[in-house]
Amino acid sequence: MADPNAGLALELVRRDWAWAGISPDTIFNVNVFGGILLTDTRGIAWVVSPHEVDAYAITDLPGQITNFVNDPQFMSDWFAKDIAHRLHAALGPLSMGQCYAKLIPEALGGRDDVSNYRIESLDVFSARMGTLAEAVTTAHGQCDVAVDIAQDGTPVFEVLDPDHPPG
């Protein structure tokens, strides 16, 4: 059965995550956290993980995606049902095109608990986190990130260049 968010996810990978070297072909799954499991045009399996501020190939060989999809441990980690159930109970169900968006990623000091999530559109979440991931990657991790929370509750990230501090 095709993932109902596959078409949107394909466009988001092209728009927000192409900088990572992904030329997306087939979306296998979009999880409730906005994570996207896909293959590229070479058949290489990728994970786009906005809540981890990351995108990475999970294999170097074409055609290996079925090994991951059929691996119960991988899929258990992918769906993270324990926290997904708690988020559903606390925040409510998701509509098409929505995800449980982590406000502040753990890499920036955020906690992996219900208080650090909200329901958000996949489109907005992917754009924000893809932009942040690209900026941090471009700086080779040699930067600080300032986090502010806007009045509407949206996190605002500013990547600070250590060679050019704000002033």
Description:
This protein has five helices and eight strands, in the order αββββαααββαββ. The protein has 167 residues and is an alpha+beta fold. The strands form three sheets. It has a four-stranded antiparallel beta sheet, covered by helices on one side. α1 (6-16) runs parallel beside α5 (122-138). The relative contact order is 0.15. The mean pLDDT is 88.
**Category from helices, strands and their pairing:** alpha+beta
Distance between the termini: 53 Å
Please summarize the sheet with the most strands: 4 strands, antiparallel
Total count of helical runs of at least 4 residues: 5
Listing every helix as H and every strand as E from the N terminus to the C terminus, the arrangement reads HEEEEHHHEEHEE
Dominant shape: globular
Strand order of the largest sheet: 1-2-3-4
Which segments are poorly predicted (pLDDT under 50) over 5 or more consecutive residues? Answer: none
Helix share of residues? 25-40%
Rg is 16 Å
> What share of residues are in beta strands?
25-35%
What value does the average pLDDT take?
88
Q: What's the total count of β strands?
A: 8
